[in-house]
From TrEMBL:
Alphabetized UniProt keyword annotations: Nucleotidyltransferase, Transferase
Segment forming the signal sequence: none
A GO molecular function held by the record: UDP-N-acetylglucosamine diphosphorylase activity
Identification of the protein by name: UDP-N-acetylglucosamine diphosphorylase
Record-listed E.C. numbers: 2.7.7.23
Gene3D superfamilies xrefs: Hexapeptide repeat proteins, Spore Coat Polysaccharide Biosynthesis Protein SpsA, Chain A
Keyword match Nucleotidyltransferase: yes
UniProt keyword Transferase present: yes
InterPro entries: GlmU-like, MobA-like_NTP_Trfase, Nucleotide-diphossugar_trans
Positions of the MobA-like NTP transferase domain: 5-123
Classification via CDD domains: GT2_GlmU_N_bac
Enzyme class: transferase
Catalysed conversion reaction: N-acetyl-alpha-D-glucosamine 1-phosphate + UTP + H(+) = UDP-N-acetyl-alpha-D-glucosamine + diphosphate
Length: 288
């Protein structure tokens, strides 16, 4: 199955209280969008389409050295509208993976599972069971566990808000199915937006299978909307980097007191003391 990745990166991120576009905010020394692009590129898709909006020229300039297709979402009319802007660039025979520019910690393995479960026949959602589901769309299931719809929190009933399984915003779907469902979207919701999540109801109505892939943790799929969440993601990202270094044979005096702001590569028998930070691209030789 050939893949096109669409990355939604048009949001202003007003809660960041920053003039810098949200997807250029720094995580482990690199923009949020850089982390998402690394994962997308590792899938070896036919193409990557980035939907941009606020601060678009700044975002495009930063990633000018990458092979990307850029599509502008001039008006912020919701996630469904954003994907609509990208679809004319997508081959109807491809499977589309939709990622978010502000969900940087999602693992390559997870996205691969998402694409595999969709194949060329099904709509597949990435979900997670959340301790605190506030602010997220809920996965509504039928009596036998089948997915019926996704209900955004602001449109949810009191009972639906008690559901713990949430939509992460990532999905995979054959383009030939997704295109017509997007064209059929209507803005019948509290926000007056075109929700991408409404394609689930279209799939159910069409008798198309709706699969679910579960993320391993809430941290992996956390969306970053403010500086508090950015700081939480930073710690999670640094912990992941420390784990990877140790699994590759690096000795860390204190895994909680290392900061990698860029990329660090280590040869064998490397020891890193506490309170050390690395910036940019760094390589440590054997026995350092």
């Amino acid at each position: 199955v050939k893949i096109t990745v669409i990355i939604l990166a048009a949001g202003q991120g007003t809660r960041m209280r920053s003039k810098l576009p949200k997807v250029l905010q720094s995580l482990a020394g690199r923009p949020l969008l850089a982390h998402v692009l690394d994962t997308a590129e590792a899938l070896k898709p036919e193409q990557i389409v980035v939907v941009y909006g606020y601060g678009g020229e700044q975002v495009r300039e930063y990633f000018a050295d990458r092979e990307l297709n850029w599509v502008e979402q001039a008006q912020q009319l919701g996630t469904g509208h954003a994907v609509q802007q990208a679809m004319p660039r997508v081959d109807a025979n491809h499977t589309v993976i939709i990622m978010s520019g502000d969900v940087p910690l999602v693992r390559l393995e997870t996205v691969r599972n998402l694409a595999s479960a969709a194949g060329d026949q099904n709509l597949t959602l990435l979900t997670v069971d959340a301790e605190n589901a506030a602010g997220y769309g809920r996965i509504v299931r039928g009596e036998t566990g089948e997915v019926l719809s996704i209900v955004e929190e602001r449109d949810a009933t009191v009972d639906q808000r008690k559901i713990k399984e949430i939509n992460t915003g990532l999905l995979a779907c054959p383009a030939r199915l997704l295109g017509p469902w997007l064209d059929a979207l209507k803005e019948k919701n509290v926000q007056g937006e075109y929700y991408l999540t409404d394609v689930v109801s279209s799939a159910v109505a069409a008798g198309v299978g709706v699969n679910v892939v579960s993320a391993k943790s809430e941290t992996e799929v956390m969306g970053i909307n403010d500086k508090l969440q950015l700081a939480q993601a930073e710690r999670a990202c640094q912990a992941r980097i420390a784990d990877e270094l140790m699994l590759n044979g690096v000795t860390l005096a204190d895994p909680q007191r290392i900061d990698v702001r860029g990329q660090l590569k280590c040869d064998s028998d490397v020891f890193i003391d506490a309170n050390v930070w690395f910036e940019g691209t760094v390589k440590l030789g054997r026995g350092v």
